[in-house]
Amino acid sequence: AWQKELADVVGEEGLLLGDEQREKLSKDYYWYSPVLEPLLRDKRADGIVVPESEEQVAEVLAFAYRNSIPVTTRGAGTGNYGQAVPLEGGIVLDMSRLDAVLEVTDGYAKVQAGVRLGALEKRLREEGKELRIYPSTYMKATVGGFVCGGSGGIGSITWGNLWDGNVLEAVVLTMEEKPKRLVVSGSELLAYIHNYGTNGVLTELTIPVSPKVEWRQTVVQFDDIESACLFSHSVAMDDSIRKRLVTPVEWPIPSYFKPIVKRLEEGASACLLETEDGTEEKLAEHAAAHGGRIGYTIPPSQYHRTVGLSDFAWNHTTLWALKTDPTLTYLQAGFHPAEFMSQIKQIKDRFGDEVLIHLEFMRSAGVVVPASLPIVRYTAHERLYEIIAFFRSIGVGINDPHTWTLEMGGRGQLEAMLAAKRANDPRALLNPGKLSVPVGEAAARGNER
Ligand code: FAD
After folding, report:
1. Global pTM?
2. Which residues form the FAD-binding PCMH-type domain (predicted)?
């Protein structure tokens, strides 16, 4: 019955009730996880609302508040942990029509939350600027979805992750009888970065931009993953090389990269790079020092015009692995900035090909760190958590990608997020189940560790 009333708020075209639409727009990439897949498969919204203005978002929230209907916000649905899956049905609030670029200066871009990062990057580059950081899903992913569900990506080796000053301001609507419009900046943003939309709906974002660079993409290949990692580290640490991507992957991961596999050396571990045009000689020196061979390169003229190396980096690496072998899955790990080689050795000694190394060098709070999305062969839930326990036992941090709760996934500032949840969402209607699920309830859903 409420569906009918909602049509008065957003119009017939702003309300999608068909089975297929509800199914499609209630899902994200949760199926990356063999743990989450069976648990989230059947979840779907009762209706998808696609507002076309901030005023409509506020009206939808007020309506949902009055009627105690859960609201789960959606960007493009490319998140990996079921962040955008409505656990308790209700409304999925699809932000895709809030896609206006409001202001671009040399220093920042102010946009509505539903703007796709790919479209924004294209526009910025046409104007001699570019994004600082973006996920490998940039063609689809929205600015709001990245801020509320992502962490870092291409560019993070220079600019850090979302918590490193890469969000300047957000407009947040609260879930109340009369939704408030908060303009949030500085340390207050910590409550909203990677919040899964649990404590507010972000309608506008201001993010920093930087001058455009001509990027060259290069694959460097090695006999073993150790050399690939050492080379990657030396490039990551070399401040004279401007860069956006430094991604070492262990063979056979490159064999999963179907669109470019013919251009890659059989049997070689590889490093995927985006560095400034003109850094070829420096790269060659680093490669020579580590027994690396320069391979497939994509000149700047083809940047973003063809399949690029970032289409195989970050969580795209996992996507190609899964396409090749559905029994593979992944973890999100943080290796020690200095001890990572010994940690990698311990993991390889212990697990062999059950764990394949994939690092993403990035900056975090200014320090170059080897973040990692290792590929893991999935055999059983218990075994997965044995592997996680071993990583932790040798000092490798894990952000568990096999849980949908913020408490257990371990990103972001929980205390700040909880305080904002209490203030902004008194009826706990925003994306229920993702923040503050009592442990017992989570366990009953089979999502315990
Ligand atoms: P969605 O998945 O739609 O939403 C993400 C979360 O944010 C959900 O909880 C949703 O409820 C909430 N949300 C969305 N919009 C709003 C809003 N306006 N207000 C409040 N809450 C909102 N992530 C990275 O960080 N780096 C990567 O490099 C990366 N690579 C990936 C590669 C692949 C192949 C895949 C499948 C995923 C990858 N991800 C990566 C995860 C994901 O793509 C990113 O987090 C992406 O930025 C999410 O954007 P989205 O628009 O699809 O958000």
Report:
1. 0.96
2. 41-212
